[in-house]
């Protein structure tokens, strides 16, 4: 990567870290929130014959994690293109 100036590098990493923190917040809410904290409330909702809290703890969080990988990849590609540090 070659940035034009140090300010551009700082801005890039600031946006990168902000993105990572946002995605980690989603990850935390889904895994800890839906799987543990809100499990009792979510268990009142059936999903394919299972309680929703149980489903999130066992399956749903995994699906969300995989989606977060693709979201991160796509958003980082845009960020790289914005700062002209993308791979060809």
UniProtKB/TrEMBL annotation:
It comes from the Bacteria. This is DUF4212 domain-containing protein. Coiled coil: none annotated. Keywords: Membrane, Transmembrane, Transmembrane helix. The chain crosses the membrane at residues 20-42, 54-72. It holds the Pfam family DUF4212. Residues 10-86 form the Sodium symporter small subunit domain. The keyword Nucleotide-binding does not apply. The keyword Mitochondrion does not apply. InterPro entries: Na_symporter_ssu (IPR019886).
């Amino acid at each position: 990567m070659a940035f034009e100036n140090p300010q551009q590098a700082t801005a890039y990493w600031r946006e990168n870290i902000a993105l990572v923190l946002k995605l980690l917040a989603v990850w935390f809410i889904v895994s800890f929130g839906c799987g543990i904290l809100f499990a009792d409330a979510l268990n009142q909702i059936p999903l394919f014959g299972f309680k929703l809290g149980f489903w999130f703890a066992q399956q749903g969080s995994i699906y969300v994690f995989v989606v977060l990988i693709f979201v991160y990849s796509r958003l980082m590609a845009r960020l790289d293109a914005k700062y002209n540090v993308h791979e060809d």
